[in-house]
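Input chain follows. Return structure tokens only.
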Amino acid sequence: MWRDIVKYGVIAGLVVGGGMYATTWALSGEMPHGWVGMAVGYATMLVAFSAVFVGIKHQRDVGGGGVIKFWPAFGMGLAISFIAALFYVVAWELVQATIVDDFAGSYGASVIAAEKAKGIDPAALAKLTAEMEAFKTQYADPKFRLPMTFAEIFPVGVLVSLVSALVLRNPRVLPAR
């Protein structure tokens, strides 16, 4: 089971990390902020986490003789997700080191620009600007940035692990041939 966890975790990690790196490189370091960036990012995560489903199914069909209980399946999914999330964090650090100059600054500027477009009042704009400057300072600290990056992806892996374990505990769903 551990070999499958590592194998499918690395596959998921390479898909999500490679997807992030390739997308950022293709956009010349210009990260799409707002709903477009989130949609692309979370779609890539879901594609990558299909390895969780495949890994649990492989364990059920090959290692378990066609049967797997919920908790072992869920645990396997979490372990695969954990490995993929570590790849995601490393990939993001590589993206920042090689492609993106100032993510926190450009993110803050996009948030401020969006609020200006909505007609934010000057007092709220000043408060928002201060918050974005504080965020930029926090984001420069790896003790803040690394867990925050991990927290972007791991909950998606937990959800995919939960659904996969619930579905695949039934041996009649996609039975082995």
